Amino acid sequence: MANIMIRRGDKGEYVFYLPKRDLEDTIVSMEFDTPEKWGGEIKLNNGGSYFIEPQTAPERLPYSVRAKRLDAAE
Amino acid sequence: MSNLTREETEALIAEVLEVYPDKAKKDRAKHLAVNDQSIEQSKKCITSNRKSLPGVMTIRGCAYAGSRGVVWGPIKDMIHISHGPVGCGQYSRAGRRNYYIGTTGVNTFVTMNFTSDFQEKDIVFGGDKKLAKIITEIEELFPLVKGISVQSECPIGLIGDDIEAVSKKASAAINKPVVPVRCEGFRGVSQSLGHHIANDAIRDWVLDVKKEDTSFVPSPYDVTVIGDYNIGGDAWSSRILLEEMGLRVIAQWSGDGSLAEMELTPKAKLNLLHCYRSMNYISRHMEEKYGIPWMEYNFFGPTKIAESLRKIAAFFDESIQKKCEEVIAKYQPMVDAVVAKYKPRLTGKRVMLYVGGLRPRHVIGSYEDLGMEVVGTGYEFAHGDDYDRTIKEMGNATLLYDDVTGFEFEEFVKKVKPDLIGSGIKEKYIFQKMGIPFRQMHSWDYSGPYHGYDGFAIFARDMDMTLNNPCWNKLIPPWKKPAAEGEDMAKAA
Ligand code: SF4
User: Fold this and answer.
1) Where do the H-state alpha helices sit in B347-482?
2) Given Cys at both, which of A41, B41, B237, B384 links A31, Cβ 3.0 to 4.6 Å?
C-alpha cells in the first residue's frame, strides 16, 4: 500500500503522483469513474497499474488516497 | 569541433566506464545516457536519486545543506540555528548569495551563522538544555526576530535529542514560532531529501498558523513566487515582470522572503513554481489542501520568459493578458539589443552543464537565445521527474549524466571539448587549468541576477566576458609556442 495523489493535468486528464518515489504519470484508464463509484484498477502510461478501493468520487482534486500496487512497470 | 553522433557518444560513455571495477561500472552505467527525445520516460534511459558510489568524487551535499542552506536559510527575518557542531553552518555560511533587504543583525539574519557549537559533553549528555538556552538568548539579543528554526545536524539524530519538545516549550515561552527540522545530514542520498524535509516542516509548523487571521485583504491577482532563492537578485528581476503584468506577488519563497509571507501563501490564487525540485512538495500540498493550483515557469532567456509570461497570463483574465503582451513588447527592444551585441560573439559555441535543482534544464533556453548549444547536462541530485522534463529540452544524442563523478566529467570534457562549462566551485579551477572557460552556475560566479529580462542582459555579458576573455590564448607560454608564431612575435618586437 502506498500513498498516492491524484490530480488533474493540463488537458483535464487524471495525473498520478507517488510522492515516495517521485513518480508522476498520466492515468490512461480508471476502472470506475462516476460520482458514486470511483477508483478500482488504474492503469498508468508507463504500463504500471494500481488499485484504489472503489469509493464515491472525491469532491475536488487533488486527492490523496491509499493505493495498492498491482503491477509496477520496470 | 563538430557534435558527436549517437554512436560516438555511446562509445564515449563506454570508454569512460572502462576504468571502473565491474560492480561500479554496472552502477555508473545506469547514470550516464545519450539523450533520445523520443523517450517519454526518463527512467528508461537514466537512473537517478541513488546513493553515490563510495570511492568516487561526488559534489552532492547533505540533507542539512538542503534544508538550512537552500529552503530555510534565505527566510530573512527568522534565525536558523545550525544545531550541532560548528562546522556545518560555518563552512556554508552566506555561500549562496541569497540577496535580501534589511539590516543584518537587527531585523534580518540571512548571512549570519547561529550554531549551538556542540562539544563532547553535549554529545554525551544531550544538547536539549543548550538549545533551550540558545533560544532564550536569541530572543534577548535579537528581539526583532520573527521566528526560529532548529536545523539538525548529524549528531542530533544520532544521540536522539528531542528538539520537538524543546521547540514547543520555547515557542510558548517567547511567543514566536520555533520550528524543529529533522534534516540530519545522513538522511537520504543528497540534499534533495533535505528540501523535502524542509517543505514538510513548513507544512506542519508554518502554513496553518495564521489561518484565523483576517487582516490580509486578498485580491484576485495574488500570486506567489516559489522556489526562487534570489541568488544575486533573481527573484527581484522576476518579480517586477509579474508586477508589471498586473499581478500582485504576495510571497517569495524563500529568497528575500519572510515568515509572514509564508504564512500568507495559502491565500494566493496561483503558486508559481520556479525550482520544481526543491519546492514541488509544498506546492502539491497547497494544491490539495487549499485548492491553489501551481504552475511551473522558466524565466531564463527571452524565449522562455515570453512563453512563461503568456502561460501565467492565460490563467487570469483578459486585462492581465493584454498587459502581459505589453510587458513582452516593452522589453523586446532591450532583448534585441542584447542579442545583436552578443549573439555574433557567442553563436555556435558549445556548453556543458552540471548543476543542481532546475538549472541543468532551465538555462538551456538562455544559451539557445544567444545561439549557443548545450551539448551535455546533468544534475547533482535530480529525481526521475526532473529527467522527464529534461529530455525534451535537450538535443538528440547529447550527453546526460547523473551525479557525475569527477573522473567522468573530466573525461567527457576532454572528448566533447565544449567551449564553456557551467558548474560549481569545485569544478571551476580544474577546468580553468585545463584551459576551458568556466562559469560557476550555482551562485552565478559572484554576478547575477540571471532571471528575467534584466537578468538575461547580465547573463549574456557574463558569458561573453568568460568565453572571449583574452586569457584563454595566453595559456601556452611564448617559448613553447610553435616556431612560426614565435618568429612573428620577434618581428613584431
Ligand atoms: S553530513 Fe552531517 S556533519 Fe556533514 S555537513 Fe551535513 S549535517 Fe553536518
Assistant:
1) 359-362, 364-369, 384-393, 406-416, 425-433, 452-467
2) A41
- Please work out whether the CB of residue B62 comes within 6 Å of at least one atom of ligand 1: yes
Single out the residue of B343, B324, B223 nearest to residue B273, CA to CA.
B223
Is B251 in contact with B169 (CB distance < 8 Å)?
A: no
Q: Is A60 in contact with B291 (Cβ distance < 8 A)?
A: yes
Q: Ligand 1 center to residue B125 CA distance, Å?
A: 20
Q: Which of B40, B41, B288 sits opposite A63 (nearest CB)?
A: B288
Q: What would the pLDDT profile of B31-73 be if each residue is shown by its tens digit?
A: 999 998 888 778 778 888 899 998 888 889 999 999 999 999 9
List chain A residues with CB under 8 Å of B41.
25, 45-46
Question: DSSP states of B106-154 as a string?
Answer: TTB-TT--EE----HHHHHH-SHHHHHHHHHHHHHH-TT--EEEEEE-H
Instruction: Categorize the per-residue pLDDT at B272 as very low, low, confident or very high, splitting at 50, 70 and 90.
Output: very high
Edge-first strand order for the sheet with B178-181 is B114-115, B78-83, B147-152, B178-181
The pLDDT tens digits for B437-483 are: 999 999 999 998 999 999 999 999 999 999 999 999 888 888 888 76
Cα B62 from chain centroid (whole Å)? 14
How many whole angstroms from B153 Cα to the centroid of ligand 1?
A: 6
Q: Where are the alpha helices (DSSP H) in B148-233?
A: 154-159, 163-174, 191-205
Q: Which helix (H) or strand (E) holds B225?
A: strand B222-228
Residue of B nearest to A64 (CA): B288
Domains assigned to chain B: 6-59+347-446 (3.40.50.1980), 63-188+190-207 (3.40.50.1980), 222-329 (3.40.50.1980)
Distance from CA of A16 to the nearest CA of B (A): 12
The CA distance from B90 to B20, in Å, is 36
Which set of grid coordinates corresponds to residue B266? Answer: 495559502
Is B145 close to ligand 1, i.e. is its CB under 6 Å away? Answer: no
Q: Is the ipTM of this complex over 0.85?
A: no
Q: How far is B288 from chain A (nearest CA, A)?
A: 5
Query: What pTM value is reported for the model?
Result: 0.91
Residues 6+ apart with CB under 8 A from B335: B302, B453, B456
CA pair distance B114, B119, nearest whole angstrom: 15
Q: How many CB atoms lie within 10 A of CB B316?
A: 19
Question: Which residues are CB-neighbours of B188 under 8 A, at least 6 positions away?
Answer: B63, B194, B196
Using a CB–CB cutoff of 8 Å, tell me whether B318 touches chain A.
no
> What pLDDT score was predicted for residue B2?
57
Q: State yes or no: cis peptide before A62, omega within 30 of 0.
A: yes
Residue type at position B17: L
